[in-house]
Specification:
The complex is a heterodimer. Chain A has eight helices and ten strands. The relative contact order of chain A is 0.18. Chain B is of the alpha+beta class. Chain B folds into two domains: 193 residues, no CATH class; 205 residues, no CATH class. A six-stranded mixed barrel of chain B has the order 3-4-9-6-8-7. A four-stranded antiparallel β-sheet of chain B has the order 2-10-1-11. Chain B has a two-stranded antiparallel sheet with strand order 12-13. In chain B, helix 2 packs antiparallel against helix 8. The longest helix of chain B is centred in the N-terminal third of the chain and has 40 residues. Classes of the chains: A alpha/beta, B alpha+beta. Chains A and B meet through helix 2, strand 6 and helix 3 of A and helix 1, helix 9 and helix 12 of B.
């Protein structure tokens, strides 16, 4: 469970920018949350603070009761490795590594033995539908496939929370559908907690809940009905995971 | 720690095997050229100095020179006494190849190239005496005859000159020479003790070492008759087997009872050349410095561009929980890889290409022909310096980029 209390972030400068102006909310484990709002509303800034990529100016972030907002740089790095997963807007993979090498990198950093991390990452690559692309270089994968490798990498450490910052921003319609269904499936099947930033309203229908931001404040919460969710899974972006894989 | 090293090695391996091959080849090439530049120039200088040192030992003063001591009033004596006994003691020391005693006396040498007496050529040089057989064991004089013949023990009215005194034969000090005396011509020598003798030129030698070619030699017996003394010498030249430094043999000489205070190594007689050696050493250091800067800057630029172009990736690696140290270590390994491969190829070129080439085509120096002299210690120093420079060149750019804020690194 994530509990955020009065989170503020100000970027200093000649004219300080107050990106987050006291945000509070709770997210139970296993929930798929979409964070929405116009540009400059503070949604990416919020994700950076929650994922420990940046330090909040003030406020508290509790993850399963542990305050992670004040961790030192070294401890924050270790925490990200062990408990968090992050999917970036662009296909943030290492081009010198092939698909499975990108996926197992966190496990190698955790010190898992080679045989084991290959087994775990292969299994996860199968789950994201890329078992036949394990040894392809990143340049040989489509945008959607690259984003699925990034999802596999974010989940390979059995992360408590998966953060996704506009994961479909650079994808075509078909691949958007593939990635969103995959995230939904991970939430349903594995009970994965997911926080996804998006600015496309259709994408929120794959989530359980939507947090609307404006000018650095949480202005509205919305829960997505099961029927809307089901409809999005079956008809959203007019494709199907299995058919596209074929 | 082991996990971090393993991850750094993994990234490094992938950078090498899947990175830009052209960049790797060019960087290794620059490292190789820098290494070769350092060691080839150093090897040529060392070869030239080695040649001068060898010439000094072979044709000038041997390894060690024993000179007269001081009398009871502290004045330097003119001659060493009881030379036969001293030479027996010297030759009995293990590692001594041989020794030869010489008399040296100032003189004026006069040469009349024609019978008219109008052209009189006069030079002022010291004349030395040698025991021709002893001399064969300590110098290469007998092997360096340009014209005529070497002295025999029984020769009394014969003289041998270096080309710097005889003139001709490409001598470098023509102005101070007899300007081209021929074998069989007669010279008159006015010794400083008042004795005057006539000699026939028996041979002209050239060692290519000007200091050694500025001598005129008569036999020991002839000089003893000129000076009217026996069993004495102005100096004793000693050759060793070079197994130990001269200081060791000087110590052995003293232990063996050669108690003269003035026993000096060959280095004491070539102050000018040693000054040249110091200059060569400075040039070698400059070349080493320039080579290291070239290699270091090249590797720095390559790693700098690699880290700047991978800035976003480095941010992402940090975002997924990779420590800065792993990222820095992977780039240091990459930088070391360029240096190690460059050094390896450079060593192979030195060993299998450059050295055989210079042996087949020696460089023609004014003091003789020389090939490369690869000094292991100098090569080791250049390797250590190149590795150290490559570590710095890998560390600085990767450390700077890896310390950047994750968000800034990813989004620019």
């Amino acid at each position: 469970m994530i509990k955020v209390t009065d989170l503020k972030k100000t970027y200093p400068g000649k004219v300080p920018v107050h990106a987050l102006k006291g945000v509070s909310f709770e997210i139970p484990s296993g929930q798929f949350v979409a964070i929405m709002g116009p540009s400059g509303s503070g949604k990416s800034t919020l994700l950076h603070q929650l994922a420990l990529l940046d330090k909040p100016t003030s406020g508290q972030i509790l993850l399963d009761g542990i305050d992670i907002s004040g961790l030192s740089q070294g401890k924050a790095t270790d925490f990200r490795l062990r408990y968090l997963g992050y999917v970036f807007q662009e296909y943030a993979l290492i081009p010198e590594l092939n698909a499975i090498e990108n996926a197992f990198l966190p496990l190698m950093l955790l010190g898992m033995n080679r045989k084991e991390f290959i087994r775990v990452s292969t299994e996860l690559m199968g789950r994201v539908g890329l078992v036949d692309r394990l040894h392809h270089l990143i340049s040989e994968l489509s945008g959607g496939e690259q984003q699925r490798v990034a999802i596999a990498r974010a989940l390979v450490n059995k992360s408590k929370i998966l953060f996704a910052d506009e994961p479909c921003a650079n994808l075509d319609t078909e691949n958007k559908g593939i990635v969103l269904r995959l995230l939904r499936k991970l939430c349903n099947d594995l009970g994965q907690t997911i926080l996804m930033v998006t600015h496309e309203p259709e994408q929120r229908e794959f989530a359980d809940r939507v947090l609307w931001f404006r000018d650095g404040r949480l202005v509205k919460e919305e829960y997505i009905g099961k029927d809307v969710q089901e409809d999005a899974i079956h008809n959203g972006y007019r494709t199907d995971v299995s058919s596209s894989e074929k | 720690m082991w996990n971090d090293l393993q991850a750094a090695l993994f990234l490094f391996y992938k950078y090498v095997t899947r990175g830009n091959k052209g960049t790797s080849v060019l960087t290794v090439l620059v490292a190789t050229l820098a290494f070769l530049q350092i060691n080839l120039i150093s090897g040529i200088f060392s070869g030239a100095l080695g040649l001068i040192y060898d010439q000094t030992k072979n044709n000038y003063v041997g390894n060690i020179v024993v000179q007269p001591g001081k009398d009871q009033w502290g004045n330097k004596e003119e001659y060493i006494k009881q030379v036969t006994e001293l030479k027996r003691k010297i030759n009995a020391i293990p590692g001594i190849i041989g020794c030869s005693s010489r008399y040296t006396i100032g003189s004026v040498i006069e040469y009349h190239p024609d019978k008219t007496g109008k052209d009189i050529r006069t030079v002022s040089w010291p004349v030395k005496s040698i025991d021709p057989e002893d001399e064969k064991r300590i110098s290469g004089l007998h092997n360096n005859m340009l014209a005529g013949q070497y002295l025999d023990e029984s020769d009394r009215d014969q003289i041998v000159m270096g080309r710097e005194i005889s003139g001709g034969y490409g001598a470098s000090l023509e102005v101070q020479s007899l300007k081209g005396i021929n074998i069989g011509d007669e010279v008159t020598i006015f010794y400083h003790n008042g004795t005057t003798r006539k000699y026939t030129l028996k041979g002209i030698y050239a060692t290519a070492f000007p200091l050694a070619d500025m001598n005129a030699f008569v036999t020991q017996k002839e000089m003893e008759s000129v000076l009217g003394m026996r069993d004495r010498a102005s100096e004793i030249i000693i050759r060793t087997d070079d197994a130990y430094p001269e200081a060791y043999y000087i110590q052995e000489l003293r232990k063996a009872g050669v108690e003269l205070p003035d026993i000096r190594p060959w280095q004491d007689f070539i102050g000018l050349v040693l000054g040249l050696a110091q200059t060569f050493d400075i040039i070698k250091r400059i070349v080493l410095f320039i080579g290291l800067v070239v290699a270091g800057v090249t590797i720095f630029i390559v790693i700098f561009i690699a880290t700047i172009s991978r800035k976003k990736q480095i941010g992402i690696m940090k975002a997924i929980g990779m420590k800065e140290g792993i990222i820095v270590a992977s780039y240091i390994m990459l930088s070391l890889f360029y240096a190690v491969v460059g050094i390896g190829i450079g060593l192979a070129v030195l060993e299998f290409v450059a050295t055989p080439y210079f042996i087949a085509h020696p460089l023609d120096f004014p003091v003789g022909k020389t090939s490369l002299l690869i000094v292991r210690g100098e090569v080791a120093t250049s390797i250590i310096c190149m590795l150290a420079v490559s570590i710095i060149a890998g560390f600085i750019p990767s450390w700077r980029v890896s310390r950047e804020n994750i968000i800034k690194a990813i989004w620019g």
